[in-house]
């Protein structure tokens, strides 16, 4: 009966080590790729916010050029974009449509405070920019 011990079932230490090694190799390949996808997604979301705000500001300018009033949708005398003004004039569909907007400067967006941007307009060129400038992967 000396040879019947192996028939009890279970895994040997070598088998478990081989499985763990295969899992470690798979994790080493997959984890860096997932990080790249997340950063690319954040980059694309930031660019989408910028394009959306640029289109809304351009539409605002096109609409108000023929009438007297505010030439730019700004918060007071700053160069910060007033998202509520764009919403009121139906250039945006809601105050929370720009998830990267910084709520502390009263742009009207609701978002997570980390990785937020103050969206402004260069009034001489009409280009929408953010403060701070975008950093890869830093986005709400």
What does this structure look like?
- This protein is mainly alpha-helical and 140 residues long.
- It has one domain.
- 41% of the residues lie in helices and 7% in strands.
- It has helices at 13-64, 83-88; strands spanning 118-122, 127-131.
- A two-stranded antiparallel sheet has the order 1-2.
- A hairpin with a 4-residue loop joins strand 1 (118-122) and strand 2 (127-131).
- The model has no long low-confidence stretch (mean pLDDT 80).
Secondary-structure topology with pairs:
Blueprint lengths: L12 H52 L18 H6 L29 E5 L4 E5 L9
Antiparallel strand pairs: 1-2
Keywords:
140 residues, mainly alpha, 2 helices
Strand content: 5-15%
Low-confidence stretches: none
Number of E strands: 2
Strand order of the largest sheet: 1-2
Give the overall shape, derived from the CA principal axes: rod-shaped
Elements, N to C (H/E): HHEE
What would you say about this model in short?
Helices cover 41% and strands 7% of the residues. By secondary structure, the protein is mainly alpha-helical. A hairpin with a 4-residue loop joins strand 1 and strand 2 (127-131).
